Structures are given as structure tokens and as C-alpha cells.
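Example for tutorial group B:
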């Protein structure tokens, strides 16, 4: 149960990229989804920074929704996983935009799609996965919370001030540099979003059997 009265939105969301090594023939998430890229997708190795990480669960959500067979290869950290993706030891990875964008620009990796519900402003040419897999969304997020029992008037003032700050163009630009977008709203908005995220990822964990190490 999420007590929405404790939520003080001043939130940000972080999208990820779905990448493949440049040797893979898929040229769009639709190829990876439908298997039309000219290669057998069965047993293709998808990597993450470890069991139970956000990258891992984002991949499990993709598998569930797309009906594809991917072998999860967990690493002891996303940096090691990204290194092996670049070298071709594994074929795909869902990772943060900021961690991988330079590899994409250099042609070492190909970005198939972003994990946000819509295209990302810093990479408008890359489609959202949801354009080919309706309903797919996997974003990390952060927000501000206050202790239980905090007076409502303080919650409301914090909400107003934080939301005002998030509208500053300089603040928005800095978040975008970090691969994040601001998500202003009310305490009720944040409480609803938080509860929906808990339920969504609980289902992914239960169906996939993922367990944090």
C-alpha cells in the first residue's frame, strides 16, 4: 500500500536503450520482436548488470510481451556487461542511454529502441519500443518523499516549490544531459504512479522467477 500523502513529486524518469552489437542484422526493434532480421533469435544472449537489476527485469518484460527467447547472461555490474556487448561476446543489452550513447555514435552498437513510452528528446531518431510493442515501458525514476505525519501544508508547499524548479529550462537541460526527463505532478499523481510500478514489476518478478543475488 502506498500512502500518497507522503509523496512529494519532484520526480525524474530515466529511459534506457535496447542495443545490439553491430554484427547483428536487426535494424529495428520490429526485427528483434518479429524475428525478421534474418537470424534465428532462439537462444540469443541478452546481458545485464546482474540478476534482479533493472536491466534484467526490463529484458524479462520485453521477453514476456514480445514472446521471444533470450538467454539472460548476468554480470557483476553493467560496465562489464557493456564491455562484452561492445566486443561481441553477447548480442544485446538494455542499458541506460548515458552509458551507451558514445558507443552508438561511434558505430560499435546499434540502438534499436528506447524503453520510455515515447521517443526520447535527446535521441529523436530512435523509436520507442512501444511503437512496435504496444504497452512496453521500462523507466527508472526518482522522487522526493516526506516522513509519515508531515503536515499537509508542508507537503503542498514542497510540491509547489519542487515543481516550479523542475520547470526551469536549465534544470530540464541538466536532467536531459543525465539521460533523464522531469515529471512534475501532484502527490496523488506520484502515489498512483508508484503503486502501478510496484504492481507491474511484481508481476515480472513472479513470472520470470528473478531473484536478487
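The residue assignment follows.
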Amino acid at each position: 500500500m502506498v500512502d500518497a500523502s507522503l509523496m512529494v513529486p519532484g520526480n525524474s524518469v530515466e529511459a534506457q536503450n535496447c542495443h545490439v552489437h553491430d554484427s547483428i542484422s536487426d535494424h529495428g526493434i520490429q526485427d528483434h520482436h518479429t524475428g525478421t532480421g534474418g537470424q534465428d533469435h532462439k537462444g540469443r544472449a541478452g546481458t545485464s548488470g546482474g540478476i534482479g537489476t533493472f536491466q534484467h527485469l526490463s529484458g524479462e518484460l520485453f521477453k514476456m510481451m514480445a514472446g521471444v527467447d533470450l538467454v539472460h547472461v548476468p554480470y557483476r555490474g553493467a560496465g562489464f556487461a557493456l564491455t562484452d556487448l561492445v566486443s561481441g561476446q553477447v548480442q544485446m543489452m538494455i542499458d541506460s542511454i548515458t552509458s551507451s550513447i558514445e558507443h552508438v555514435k561511434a558505430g560499435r552498437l546499434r540502438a534499436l529502441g528506447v524503453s520510455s513510452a515515447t521517443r526520447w528528446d535527446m535521441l529523436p531518431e530512435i523509436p520507442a519500443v512501444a511503437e512496435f510493442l504496444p504497452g512496453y515501458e521500462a523507466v527508472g525514476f526518482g522522487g522526493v518523499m516526506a516522513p509519515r505525519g508531515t503536515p499537509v501544508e508542508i507537503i503542498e508547499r514542497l510540491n509547489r516549490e519542487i515543481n516550479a524548479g523542475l520547470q526551469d529550462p536549465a534544470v530540464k537541460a541538466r536532467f536531459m544531459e543525465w539521460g533523464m526527463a522531469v515529471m512534475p505532478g501532484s502527490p496523488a499523481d506520484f502515489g498512483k504512479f508508484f503503486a502501478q510500478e510496484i504492481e507491474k514489476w511484481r508481476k515480472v518478478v513472479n513470472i520470470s522467477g528473478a531473484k536478487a543475488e
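The radius of gyration is 18 Å. Compare this with the pattern of hydrophobic and polar residues in the output above.
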